[in-house]
Amino acid sequence: MDLVKMGIDAAVIEPAECAKVATRSLQQIPEDVASAAGIGIPDPSGSMTVVSLASTANPDTVAQGLDVDTSGCTEFTMAIEGQTVSVTIEELPIDPVGGETVSFLMTQVLPTGQTMYILGVMAMEGATVASAQQIGTAEPDLVTQDELGRLAGELLTGKPVAG
After folding, report:
1. Which of 67, 89, 132, 134 is the most buried (most CB within 10 A)?
2. pLDDT tens digit string along 26-42?
3. pLDDT digits (tens, 9 = 90+) for 17-27
4. Could you tell me the pTM of the whole model?
């Protein structure tokens, strides 16, 4: 999380009005919120699953991380130390998996020309938010989204979720 924050803080985001969307999308758990995260073993395509659970006394704090509203900033660039990354964010439809639920696909075209995909599902109940994301170079599908939704729901509720 510290490396992500340092990278975002040093980035020049264009158009400038998309800076808030970029920061919120890439740095989802506020610093002062108790949280835990885990990273899975890469699958055969090299994609990794990352899960996190965060909770605080103030539901508004975690709700900020659940807000995927791009407000016209579905495409922007981030320049960090002379390297430019093109980013596209798309909110995806998803059935609730244990509270308010959102899903998104972030596509990043790196300076090398390689494309990275981040497919995420976040679920919030009260002041707790659970997140499951797949990060890799293989374009994810709806089966992956369903599995991430199941993981996020189980983290949030502590119970098995169908999906």
Report:
1. 132
2. 555 666 677 888 899 99
3. 887 776 665 55
4. 0.83
